[in-house]
Structures are given as C-alpha cells and as structure tokens.
Automatic annotation (TrEMBL):
Acts both as a biotin--[acetyl-CoA-carboxylase] ligase and a repressor. It comes from the Bacteria. It catalyses: biotin + L-lysyl-[protein] + ATP = N(6)-biotinyl-L-lysyl-[protein] + AMP + diphosphate + H(+). Keywords: ATP-binding, Biotin, DNA-binding, Ligase, Nucleotide-binding, Repressor, Transcription, Transcription regulation. The gene is birA. This is Bifunctional ligase/repressor BirA. GO terms for molecular function: ligase activity. Pfam families: BPL_C, BPL_LplA_LipB, HTH_11. Belongs to the biotin--protein ligase family. The keyword Nucleotide-binding applies. The keyword Transmembrane does not apply. It comes from Gulbenkiania mobilis. InterPro entries: aa-tRNA-synth_II/BPL/LPL, Bifunct_BirA, Biotin_CoA_COase_ligase, BPL_C, BPL_LPL_catalytic, HTH_11, Transcriptional_repressor_C, WH-like_DNA-bd_sf.
C-alpha cells in the first residue's frame, strides 16, 4: 500500500476528500476496523471518520459495511496505485524516460498535465490519478470511473517532428495498449480511431491533445482510461478486465502499458504511423465488415471497412469507390437480409 498521494486541481476546501482517502486507506485490508481505532490512528475525531465513510459511499461510490461492535469494512478492497511498484516493473529504457507522479484526486489528468507542460514540465512525465472528478474522452465525452476500478493517467511526450507529422498517433498508442494486454493474455481489438474493445464492448479509450508548430517541435499529452474492474454507471456500453475473466493488478498493468508506450512512441517519433499500420490492421475490429461512419454534421456514410492508410485515416469502400476519413464515429452496421 502506498502512502497518501497529492491532490491536484481541487478547490481549496478539499479536506473532506483528504479525510475520506485517509479512512479508505485504513480500510484497504478488507477487515473490520472500529471508528475509534481509525480515529486514533489518524489523529481525528470519530465524527470525522463517520463523515469520511459517508463521502466514500456517496462521492466515491464504494460500499462500506457498518456493523455495531465491529466497525467499518470495505465491501470490495482494491489495489492502490503505487509508483514504486510500477517503477519496479519498468524496463531499463522506460525507467530512464518516465517520471512518475500520482494524485489521489484531480479534475482531469489531461488538464493538469497540459498545465504542467505549458509551465515547462519534462518530457516523459506521467500523471496518474486514483479518481478524476471531470475526466473526459474524445469529443468532450465524460469519462469517469469508480475509484480503484481502472487506470486513468496521462503522459507528456515532446516530439521532434511537428504536429503535421503526427497523424495516426492515437492509433499507434492503441497498438501499444494491444501489445501490453496481449502479453498479459488479454485478447483485445482496436476500434478506429482511439478505442480498445473486448467482446465488442469498450475497454479503454485514448485522448490526444497537441500543441506546437506544424513543422516542430510538438508537445503531446496522451490520456488513457482503462477499465480493470466494474467502473460503475457510465453512459455507454463498457467492458472491464475482471468481468472478462482477466483479473490483473493495476500496478502490473500500468508498468506493462508504460513499457509498450515507450517503445511505440520512440519508433513513432522516427517513422510515424506507417511503421504500425500492418500491426494495427491485424488487431482492428470491423475490417471487411459493413460499417456506418457518422459525423457531427452531415449524413452518415455506409460501406465496407478496408483498414487504414499510412496516416491512420479510415478506408471505407462505398458504391462511389474507396473513400478516406480523418474524422468520424464508426459503428458496425447490420447486414441487410
């Protein structure tokens, strides 16, 4: 168990959250602890402990058993993120590149890392959070998961090539996730442009935010959310590793993902997405299947998915011929009978 992490992007009055995290760590062993014992170990009142348990249940969405004469017990203990444990799992080259930072609570790791990047944060900074209050995905969609149920982290990578040389980056990041999960025995598929699927449901998402010049250099913040266990209520069909029969430790998984990301991003900086096109296609969902490509404006396009080009653009065979798409939302279309 790691010690208390910092809180980033929180309002000044965040002490209730800090108390809640402290009490939650006291309950992490899955045993009953009396309110008096917890208060004594934390140097606070039993009332503060009771308030913290209320926050754990109503804000964090975790169930806590309360039994007279025994105290409090966390219904489903989870593995806390521990940057020392993650670092032990890194390969030498990755360990030399990544600087690991952990916060208990933040609004969005992408938002906070973008702020740090503009203030001169070093290449290779990784910011992970136990909980995000305003996590977001592609197209501004909300990405929020129950505390302890997944990985939510962002990383800062400074490319020598400019923004114009970064098409297909989100697809390359997807390849890195596939490599890490496949090595751990998890079969996954890639959905263009930035999702990972397991059994047809979304397991992970990628958010890329760019800044810099067209010709270089470029600063990129890469955000990743991955469901390890049940993430709680989310406004889209999702999967998680535990329910799919692949229970993995979060620290082991984060180390594996960071190792793969280091290798992929290093190669991408030299060669671009073309180096990963075949590998992406080999793991792609919907290739050769009838699909519908939808847009925020305009009519959807239907056709047969034919993979991607060297820039990561989606190729769709339509009655008018092969078309290329750089933006859009892809869904599997039922075959007409």
């Amino acid at each position: 168990m790691t010690g208390p992490a910092a809180h980033a992007g929180l309002p000044p009055d965040s002490r209730p959250l800090a108390h809640a995290f402290a009490v939650l760590r006291a309950l992490s062993d899955g045993r009953f602890h009396s309110g008096e014992a917890i208060a004594g170990s934390l140097g606070c009142s039993r009332t503060l402990v009771w308030q913290a348990v209320h926050t754990i249940e109503n804000v964090f969405g975790l169930q806590v058993y309360s039994v007279r004469g025994q105290g409090y017990k966390l219904a489903q203990p989870f593995e806390w993120l521990d940057m020392a444990a993650v670092r032990q799992g890194l390969a030498e080259a990755a360990a030399d590149t990544w600087t690991l930072a952990l916060v208990d609570e933040t609004d969005s790791t992408n938002t906070q890392l973008t702020i740090r990047a503009s203030a001169g944060a070093p290449h290779g900074l990784v910011l992970a959070a136990e909980r995000q209050s305003a996590g977001r995905g592609r197209l501004g969609r909300r990405w929020q998961a129950r505390l302890g149920s997944g990985l939510t982290f962002s990383l800062l990578w400074r490319f020598e090539r400019g923004i114009a040389g970064l098409p297909g980056l989100s697809l390359a990041v997807g390849v890195a996730l596939v490599r890490a999960l496949t090595a751990l025995g998890v079969p996954v598929a890639l959905k263009w442009p930035n999702d990972l699927l397991i059994d047809g449901a979304k397991l992970a998402g990628i958010l890329i935010e760019l800044s810099g010049d067209a010709l270089g250099p470029a600063t990129v913040v890469i955000g990743i959310g991955l469901n390890v266990a049940d993430p709680g209520p989310i406004d889209q069909p999702v999967a998680n590793l535990a329910a799919a029969g692949h229970p993995l430790g979060r620290n082991q998984l984060l180390a594996a993902v960071l190792n793969a990301l280091h290798d992929v991003l290093t190669t991408f900086n030299r060669e671009g997405f073309a180096a990963f096109r075949e590998e992406w296609t080999a793991h792609a969902a919907f290739v050769g299947e009838p699909v519908r490509v939808s847009f925020s404006h305009g009519q959807p396009v239907e056709g047969i998915a034919r993979g991607v080009d060297d820039n990561g653009a989606l190729l769709v065979e339509t009655p008018e011929g092969l078309r290329t798409f750089h933006v859009g939302e892809v869904s599997l279309r039922r075959r007409r009978t």
